[in-house]
Design brief:
458 residues, two-stranded antiparallel sheet, alpha/beta, single chain, 12 strands, 8-stranded mixed β-sheet
Length: 458
């Protein structure tokens, strides 16, 4: 335990020194103009169903009695390991549906993720069960943060196009995702993976699916997964945005779904704002590029994206009718929240907090309050959606399953986990305990147990 504290303290000191060096470099080179690398191609596919789109996954949803969604939060490797533990528990949860044995993991329809959680979601979306063979060594147990910092401090990289972000993309391309594109992600039987970033100019939540790429007149199938995941985790200031070109050739009129959404959301201010933000991609003059950063700044739980997509499309009942889907019997959402609540060091002294402590405290306060509002909204919506889908002959049961570190019963374990930093370099002990926490918290969750009990009874 003492060794872990020493290592953690050393890591914090090293990170502070490195960040100071990076900021010095940034300001010293502030007169130099840096441009983002453009890697999205113009639209050249026949239709949404040919690319990585929501429509292309409807065949799987058409046959399921369980509609199961997962949301993976941000939080660096901490979030990636925690969500990975949840996937392992779902893999090992055996179920029987209509006399057919299977795994609960295979019933997952879609995973929405931001920042650190996007690494786990994307890897599972690409490689399926291979994640349980090599993800720990490929990502969770690597000092990725140290590798990127050492590369950033090399003078020859200071003038590289795209800067630190392109270094990160290059590393993830080579060592994690192996050049895979969204065309590779569309594996048979797998869930829809919604990797989410934030548009820096407008704050709009942007999901890497063809329906959104249509707004850019761009083809998602050829777009590298590593770029999307980097965008989802690109902390502003530390990492420049991932830039995509907003092509204008196909933009004669708004798509039908966006026109319908504008009418449908006119009396809902937040959704109306989202629709207005999406329409901004049709501004031919001032919207030639979009700059994507960490999705956590607009939704650190990955839940708002699910809410937006369902509500903007007219609600679950309209979606099921339009796609000719049979309503599920069980409608469940599992929220994997890797946010921590450590004891602030500033409260132990009358010493003025540092700039870093102040920025961190302000961002965490806003994040925590927004997360609370998001959880309340989604919990209420799940119940309402299930009611809308229910018929006298077929009742849809809702389940909102939330797991987080506050639910850890053992005080020592809870304190240990809450001290794990938001970084991309964790010790083996930290990774082990995060994976175990993901498994145990899901397995022991009362609402999850009720979900399994009702499934078994049915």
């Amino acid at each position: 335990m003492q060794l872990t504290k020493i290592r953690s303290r050393f890591s914090e000191d090293w990170l502070a020194l490195t960040l100071a060096s990076l900021f010095f470099i940034v300001f010293a080179l502030s007169g130099c103009v840096s441009y983002g690398v453009i890697d999205n191609a113009p639209q050249n596919v026949a239709g949404d169903a040919e690319s990585y789109s929501i429509d292309s996954f409807t065949e799987k949803w058409r046959t399921g009695d369980i509609e199961l969604m997962l949301a993976f939060s941000g939080g660096g490797t901490r979030a990636a390991a925690f969500s990975y533990g949840v996937l392992k528990e779902l893999r090992d949860t055996a179920i029987v549906i209509e006399g057919r044995s299977g795994r609960l993991l295979d019933e997952v329809d879609y995973i929405s993720s931001v920042s650190g959680g996007s690494f786990t979601a994307a890897y599972y979306g690409l490689y399926g069960d291979q994640i349980f063979d090599d993800f720990e060594q490929v990502f969770l147990r690597r000092d990725i943060q140290g590798k990127l910092i050492r590369r950033a401090l090399k003078p020859r990289t200071w003038f590289r196009q795209g800067g630190r972000t392109e270094m990160a993309i290059s590393y993830y391309e080579k060592n994690v995702f192996h050049g895979a594109t969204f065309g590779d992600m569309k594996r048979k039987g797998g869930p829809l993976i919604l990797i989410n970033a934030a548009d820096l100019a407008y704050g709009v939540r942007f999901s890497f699916v063809q329906e959104y790429f249509n707004l850019l007149c761009s083809d998602l199938s050829s777009y590298p997964v590593a770029r999307a995941v980097t965008a989802s985790s690109a902390v502003p200031v530390l990492f420049p945005p991932v830039v995509v070109e907003n092509y204008q050739d196909c933009k004669e009129t708004l798509p039908e779904w966006l026109v319908a959404a504008e009418k449908r959301t006119s009396k809902h201010p937040e959704l109306a704002q989202k629709v207005d933000d999406l329409q901004s991609y049709f501004k031919k003059e001032g919207r030639q590029y979009a700059h994507f950063v960490d999705g956590g700044i607009s939704d650190n739980l990955g839940l708002r994206t699910l809410y937006d997509l369902i509500e903007i499309a007219g609600g679950p009942k309209e979606i099921h009718e339009k796609l000719n889907l049979k309503p599920p019997r069980q409608f469940a959402a599992i929220v994997v929240d890797a946010s921590t609540k450590p004891q602030p060091k500033m409260d132990r002294s009358n010493k003025k907090p540092s700039l870093g402590e102040t920025i961190s405290a302000v961002s965490k306060v806003q994040l925590r309050r927004y997360n609370t509002a998001t959880l309340a909204l989604m919990k209420k919506s799940i119940t309402r959606w299930a009611k809308e889908l229910s018929t006298p002959e077929r009742t849809v049961a809702p389940y909102f399953i939330q797991i987080g570190f506050k639910d850890i019963q053992d005080a020592e374990s809870r304190e240990f986990i809450n001290q794990v930093p938001t970084s991309f370099s964790l010790s083996d002990e930290q990774v082990d305990r995060l994976i175990a926490a993901g498994r145990e918290l899901l397995r022991n969750n009362v609402k999850y147990q009720q979900f399994l009990s009702d499934l078994s009874a049915r």
